[in-house]
Amino acid sequence: xxxxxxxxxLDVDTATLILDTAQAMSDxxxxxxxxxxxxxxGRTVVNLFYEDSTxxxxxxxxxxxxxxxxxxxxxxxxSSVSKGxxxxxxALTLQAMGADAVVIRHSSxxxxxxxxxxLDGSVINAxxxxxxxxxxxxxxxxxxxxxLGRVNGLRVAIVGDVLHSRVARSNIALxxxxxxxxTLVAPPTLLPVGIDGWPVDVSxxxxxxxxxxxxxxxxxxxxxxxGDSFFPSIxxxxxxxxxxxxxxxxxxxxxxxxxxxxMIRGMExxxxxxxxxxxxxxxxxxxxxxxxxxxLYLLLSGEKGSGI
Length: 308
Known about the structure:
Layout: H1 12-29, E1 44-49, H2 55-66, E2 70-75, H3 87-96, E3 101-106, H4 111-116, E4 122-128, H5 134-148, E5 155-159, H6 166-177, E6 181-185, E7 201-203, H7 206-210, E8 215-218, H8 234-241, H9 245-249, E9 256-258, H10 271-274, H11 281-300
Parallel strand pairs: 1-2, 1-3, 3-4, 5-6, 5-8, 6-7, 8-9
Helix pairs in contact: 1-5, 1-11, 2-11, 5-6, 5-11
């Protein structure tokens, strides 16, 4: 594996290797007074973010530093990008500075793939437009496996703004690869065109779906990507597709609730649900560091599949 661009590129063996390595990273950190490993000492990781981010950027930065890599955080705001510099020229600048890996988030689908044509180092897609966000899917699968012991055979409901969600696309690909049964729950206006060819079922009834779901993954309504009205009102959306306390109580006993963040409390998810014992939202954030440590380790250590 030279780059990580799409969750759909991962087969079961590669994805399982990443999750197993993430578990090894978690185990290696447990009980350490100094939470660092020397694995990537002397390597340089660049976080190249053209879109605002908190969780993903900080998670990658923390992951790289825990592996003793040097980290450069590059934001489009306040850089030469704001003066009109192209992605290619920015990439060539990073190449000249000796970047071993570039973590990129960009508003354009396919930006991460384009970057691989200009860089010798590894490229990790941290979200490109509405296309994919593979490390989010990996950390979600890791969290599911950690809580429920497996992914294969589980029933996963992905609820909300699927149309604009790169998280949904990556999760559909990866969870299906692992053998989970995925159902998308959303109003028709928030489902992509051509969904008939996807390995999913579709439902417009949240109440009917959650009663048999092992995992309910809520999605943020991405109003910043919406040019038109996709639903009558926030109140109407929340009434039909929001996860509140009553709906949470209708879940099977062992079912868990997930959200990639940031959450809009009171819209797609109620505060008492987000803070309940069923919620693994905080665990997702913590696990994201270990998964991204695993990805960086496997890409940059030169010891693919070896022990830590």
